[in-house]
Amino acid sequence: MTTPFSGRQAPGLPRLPTPPSGWPIGSYDTYEEAQRAVDYLADNDFAVQDVTIVGVDLMLVERVIGRLSWGKVLGTGALSGAWFGLFVGLLLGMFASPEGMSYSPVLVGLIAGVFFGAVFAALSYASTRGRRDFSSSSQLVAGRYDVLCQPRNAEQGRNLLAKLAMGSSGAS
Fold this sequence. Notes:
By secondary structure, the protein is an alpha+beta fold. It contains four helices and three strands. This is General stress protein 17M-like domain-containing protein.
Protein backbone atom coordinates (compact mmCIF):
# COMPACT_ATOMS: atom_id res chain seq x y z
CA MET A 1 0.00 0.00 0.00
CA THR A 2 1.21 3.52 -0.62
CA THR A 3 1.81 5.45 2.55
CA PRO A 4 1.45 9.24 2.65
CA PHE A 5 4.87 9.57 4.29
CA SER A 6 7.08 7.18 2.35
CA GLY A 7 5.51 7.43 -1.09
CA ARG A 8 6.39 3.75 -1.54
CA GLN A 9 3.97 1.06 -2.53
CA ALA A 10 3.69 -2.47 -1.21
CA PRO A 11 5.01 -5.07 -3.66
CA GLY A 12 2.41 -6.76 -5.83
CA LEU A 13 -0.18 -3.96 -5.75
CA PRO A 14 -0.99 -2.20 -9.03
CA ARG A 15 -0.14 1.50 -9.29
CA LEU A 16 -3.15 2.41 -11.41
CA PRO A 17 -6.77 1.46 -10.75
CA THR A 18 -7.25 -2.02 -12.24
CA PRO A 19 -10.13 -4.48 -12.20
CA PRO A 20 -9.70 -7.24 -9.63
CA SER A 21 -8.51 -10.66 -10.71
CA GLY A 22 -9.15 -14.10 -9.30
CA TRP A 23 -11.83 -16.70 -8.98
CA PRO A 24 -14.88 -16.17 -6.77
CA ILE A 25 -14.68 -18.28 -3.62
CA GLY A 26 -17.52 -16.63 -1.67
CA SER A 27 -20.27 -14.04 -1.97
CA TYR A 28 -21.79 -12.13 0.95
CA ASP A 29 -24.61 -9.64 1.54
CA THR A 30 -22.60 -7.38 3.85
CA TYR A 31 -19.01 -6.22 4.06
CA GLU A 32 -18.88 -7.50 7.65
CA GLU A 33 -19.64 -11.05 6.44
CA ALA A 34 -16.95 -10.83 3.72
CA GLN A 35 -14.46 -9.50 6.26
CA ARG A 36 -15.36 -12.36 8.63
CA ALA A 37 -14.74 -14.86 5.82
CA VAL A 38 -11.28 -13.44 5.08
CA ASP A 39 -10.51 -13.38 8.81
CA TYR A 40 -11.51 -17.06 8.97
CA LEU A 41 -9.15 -17.80 6.08
CA ALA A 42 -6.33 -15.96 7.88
CA ASP A 43 -7.05 -17.86 11.12
CA ASN A 44 -6.65 -21.12 9.15
CA ASP A 45 -3.22 -20.18 7.74
CA PHE A 46 -4.57 -19.47 4.25
CA ALA A 47 -2.48 -17.29 1.90
CA VAL A 48 -4.71 -14.21 2.33
CA GLN A 49 -2.40 -12.09 0.18
CA ASP A 50 -4.10 -13.86 -2.77
CA VAL A 51 -7.56 -12.68 -1.64
CA THR A 52 -9.52 -9.59 -2.70
CA ILE A 53 -12.88 -8.34 -1.40
CA VAL A 54 -14.86 -6.74 -4.22
CA GLY A 55 -17.97 -4.62 -3.71
CA VAL A 56 -20.41 -5.26 -6.56
CA ASP A 57 -23.41 -3.10 -7.58
CA LEU A 58 -22.10 0.04 -5.88
CA MET A 59 -24.54 2.62 -4.55
CA LEU A 60 -24.06 6.04 -3.02
CA VAL A 61 -26.39 6.17 -0.01
CA GLU A 62 -27.15 9.58 1.45
CA ARG A 63 -28.88 9.42 4.82
CA VAL A 64 -30.65 12.61 5.87
CA ILE A 65 -29.70 13.52 9.42
CA GLY A 66 -31.91 16.54 9.98
CA ARG A 67 -33.24 19.87 8.87
CA LEU A 68 -30.94 22.88 8.64
CA SER A 69 -31.89 26.25 10.06
CA TRP A 70 -29.96 29.50 10.35
CA GLY A 71 -29.46 28.83 14.05
CA LYS A 72 -27.94 25.40 13.47
CA VAL A 73 -25.75 26.66 10.64
CA LEU A 74 -24.41 29.62 12.62
CA GLY A 75 -23.97 27.55 15.78
CA THR A 76 -22.09 24.78 14.00
CA GLY A 77 -19.92 27.28 12.13
CA ALA A 78 -19.12 29.18 15.33
CA LEU A 79 -18.25 25.96 17.17
CA SER A 80 -16.05 24.73 14.36
CA GLY A 81 -14.33 28.10 14.16
CA ALA A 82 -13.88 28.15 17.93
CA TRP A 83 -11.93 24.87 17.85
CA PHE A 84 -9.67 26.13 15.08
CA GLY A 85 -9.22 29.53 16.74
CA LEU A 86 -8.41 27.86 20.06
CA PHE A 87 -5.80 25.68 18.38
CA VAL A 88 -4.14 28.63 16.63
CA GLY A 89 -4.35 30.73 19.79
CA LEU A 90 -2.70 28.00 21.87
CA LEU A 91 0.12 27.69 19.36
CA LEU A 92 0.67 31.45 19.29
CA GLY A 93 0.38 31.66 23.08
CA MET A 94 3.07 29.04 23.63
CA PHE A 95 5.60 30.73 21.38
CA ALA A 96 4.66 34.41 21.64
CA SER A 97 6.30 35.15 24.97
CA PRO A 98 9.74 34.05 26.16
CA GLU A 99 8.48 34.04 29.80
CA GLY A 100 5.97 31.23 29.18
CA MET A 101 2.38 30.78 28.13
CA SER A 102 0.53 33.96 27.18
CA TYR A 103 -3.27 33.78 27.28
CA SER A 104 -4.19 36.83 25.24
CA PRO A 105 -3.46 35.11 21.88
CA VAL A 106 -5.65 32.21 23.01
CA LEU A 107 -8.55 34.56 23.72
CA VAL A 108 -8.07 36.48 20.47
CA GLY A 109 -7.82 33.24 18.49
CA LEU A 110 -10.98 31.88 20.09
CA ILE A 111 -13.01 35.04 19.41
CA ALA A 112 -11.71 35.37 15.84
CA GLY A 113 -12.40 31.67 15.22
CA VAL A 114 -16.00 31.97 16.42
CA PHE A 115 -16.58 35.08 14.28
CA PHE A 116 -15.00 33.77 11.07
CA GLY A 117 -16.49 30.29 11.50
CA ALA A 118 -19.99 31.77 11.77
CA VAL A 119 -19.40 34.16 8.84
CA PHE A 120 -18.10 31.46 6.50
CA ALA A 121 -20.88 29.04 7.48
CA ALA A 122 -23.46 31.78 6.83
CA LEU A 123 -21.97 32.57 3.41
CA SER A 124 -21.92 28.89 2.48
CA TYR A 125 -25.52 28.31 3.59
CA ALA A 126 -26.77 31.50 1.92
CA SER A 127 -25.16 30.47 -1.36
CA THR A 128 -27.45 27.40 -1.54
CA ARG A 129 -30.51 29.72 -1.62
CA GLY A 130 -32.70 27.20 0.18
CA ARG A 131 -32.02 24.33 -2.24
CA ARG A 132 -30.44 22.20 0.47
CA ASP A 133 -32.08 22.81 3.83
CA PHE A 134 -30.96 19.51 5.35
CA SER A 135 -27.79 17.87 6.56
CA SER A 136 -26.84 14.38 5.51
CA SER A 137 -24.17 11.72 5.62
CA SER A 138 -23.04 9.90 2.47
CA GLN A 139 -21.68 6.38 2.27
CA LEU A 140 -20.58 4.16 -0.60
CA VAL A 141 -22.09 0.66 -0.21
CA ALA A 142 -22.37 -2.41 -2.39
CA GLY A 143 -25.25 -4.72 -3.16
CA ARG A 144 -23.00 -7.70 -2.43
CA TYR A 145 -19.38 -8.42 -1.59
CA ASP A 146 -17.49 -11.11 -3.50
CA VAL A 147 -14.34 -12.68 -2.14
CA LEU A 148 -11.93 -13.48 -4.98
CA CYS A 149 -8.80 -15.58 -4.82
CA GLN A 150 -5.95 -16.22 -7.22
CA PRO A 151 -6.45 -19.55 -9.04
CA ARG A 152 -3.49 -21.28 -7.34
CA ASN A 153 -5.33 -21.28 -3.97
CA ALA A 154 -8.97 -20.82 -4.99
CA GLU A 155 -10.06 -24.43 -4.39
CA GLN A 156 -8.54 -24.51 -0.91
CA GLY A 157 -10.17 -21.15 -0.11
CA ARG A 158 -13.56 -22.35 -1.36
CA ASN A 159 -13.30 -25.47 0.82
CA LEU A 160 -12.43 -23.44 3.93
CA LEU A 161 -15.30 -21.02 3.35
CA ALA A 162 -17.67 -23.96 2.88
CA LYS A 163 -16.59 -25.18 6.35
CA LEU A 164 -17.26 -21.70 7.73
CA ALA A 165 -20.74 -21.68 6.15
CA MET A 166 -21.51 -25.15 7.50
CA GLY A 167 -20.39 -24.12 10.99
CA SER A 168 -22.42 -20.91 11.03
CA SER A 169 -25.58 -22.47 9.55
CA GLY A 170 -25.53 -25.27 12.14
CA ALA A 171 -25.10 -22.76 15.00
CA SER A 172 -28.25 -20.76 14.14
